[in-house]
Write a structure and sequence with these properties.
This protein has about 110 residues and is of the alpha+beta class. It has two domains: about 1-50; about 55-100, no CATH class. About 50% of the residues lie in helices and about 15% in strands. It contains four helices and three strands. The radius of gyration is 19 Å and the shape is elongated.
Length: about 110
């Protein structure tokens, strides 16, 4: 649920939703605050909300490396799965997670 508070410098929005970290932002105009609150709450409900700073700190290479190290051994996956993961690692690993979009072609 979003809470919009009037401050001397503008409007502050705080969103607290079960299962998500609290999010907050400040705006000059109330309309901007309402728009951000609505968009962010919808993203949280649809499991699309990630803090930008966290996703900028990590690359796809780190994610794939963790998958190869932690997930593949437990699955008893074939060598082809490992080969595909390493191929993605070498071609796409330099991207930060925040820079990836679902509509980007991988192959």
């Amino acid at each position: 649920m979003a809470t919009i508070t009037k401050r001397p410098s503008g409007y502050q929005v705080k969103i607290r939703m079960k299962g998500h970290p609290a999010a907050s932002a400040s705006f000059d105009k109330r309309s901007d605050a309402v728009r951000w609150a609505t968009t962010t709450e919808a993203a949280m409900r649809e499991k699309r909300y990630f803090k930008t700073s966290e996703s900028q700190r990590h690359t796809l290479a780190e994610l794939i490396d963790r998958y190869i190290r932690d997930v593949i051994p437990g699955k008893g996956a074939s060598e082809s799965t490992d080969f595909i993961a390493k191929g993605l690692f070498s071609h796409w690993g330099f991207h930060s997670l925040s820079g990836l979009q679902g509509n980007q072609g991988i192959m």
